[in-house]
Amino acid sequence: MKKLIVIVFVVLVSIPAFSQIKFGLKAGVSTTSLSMPSIKTITSSTSSYTVDALKSAKYGFHGGAFIRITLFGVYLEPELLFSTRTNEYTVTNVQSTVATIEKQNFNKLDIPVMVGFKLGPIRINAGPSASLLINSPKDLISNPDLKNNYSKMTIGYQAGVGFDLFQRLTFDLRYEGSLKKYQNQIQNLAGTTKVNLDDRPNAFLFSVGLMF
């Protein structure tokens, strides 16, 4: 046990001597698309509705801070980012056939932890990404017998490429996916009908950062 403690201590003390640590700020845009393969139908005590996601791409923004720790050619980059996203759905009242476009705005804290390496001037990285919902998006259907339930925390992944310029500027293009398909659920208060929606869509993210 004493030998193990000594080895761990030596490793921890030696890491700063062989590693490079940089702090940075970054910001960027994202374009997302919802994954909803079929129109969903839900019924309250008085009305029925169909819900269909609009397939066109939506834009969001993100910004925050990161740390990049490089050791023996491999780097670890945890990030803390504030991000926004908008989902759009067509909600149709089956009885009246009245259709409306409803928007849901999501504000989140994203925490990707990327592991990567350099291949010439290009960086290649991938890693898990946790997402914490920090607001309460509006309900898609205003009927008092219906409510929306949201998962506060979701887990996904990011993977992509990047490059650095003048050892100060950093650029990244990533793809983000979800490891859990359904995160947003509409149900009537009786709990007899439920509709699962995907509130963590696939996304492409582009960001520009400044390292110190």
Structure in a nutshell:
With 212 residues, the protein is mainly beta. It has one helix at residues 2-18; strands spanning 19-33, 40-43, 48-53, 58-71, 74-93, 99-119, 122-133, 146-150, 153-165, 169-178, 184-188, 194-197, 202-211.
The total tally of domains equals 1
Q: What about the largest sheet? A: 8 strands, antiparallel, barrel
Please give the share of residues in helix.
under 10%
- Low-pLDDT residue spans: 10-14
Termini separation comes to: 39 Å
Strand segment tally: 13
| Element pattern in H and E | HEEEEEEEEEEEEE
Q: Which structural category do the helix and sheet elements fall into?
A: mainly beta
Q: Compute the CA-based radius of gyration.
A: 22 Å
**Name of the CATH architecture:** Beta Barrel
- Gross morphology: elongated
User: What name is given to the CATH topology?
Assistant: Porin
At the first level of CATH, what is the class? Mainly Beta
| Residue fraction in strands | over 45%
Number of helices: 1
Physical arrangement of strands within the biggest beta sheet: 1-4-5-6-7-9-10-13
Mean pLDDT: 86
Explain this structure.
- This protein is mostly beta strands and 212 residues long.
- The protein has one domain (21-211): Porin (Beta Barrel), CATH 2.40.160.20.
- Helix content is 8%, strand content 66%.
- The strands form two sheets. An eight-stranded antiparallel beta barrel has the order 1-4-5-6-7-9-10-13. It has a three-stranded antiparallel sheet with strand order 8-11-12, with no helix packed on it.
- The longest helix has 17 residues, at 2-18.
Q: Secondary structure elements and their pairing?
A:
Layout: H1 2-18, E1 19-33, E2 40-43, E3 48-53, E4 58-71, E5 74-93, E6 99-119, E7 122-133, E8 146-150, E9 153-165, E10 169-178, E11 184-188, E12 194-197, E13 202-211
Antiparallel strand pairs: 1-4, 1-13, 2-3, 3-5, 4-5, 5-6, 6-7, 7-9, 8-11, 9-10, 10-13, 11-12
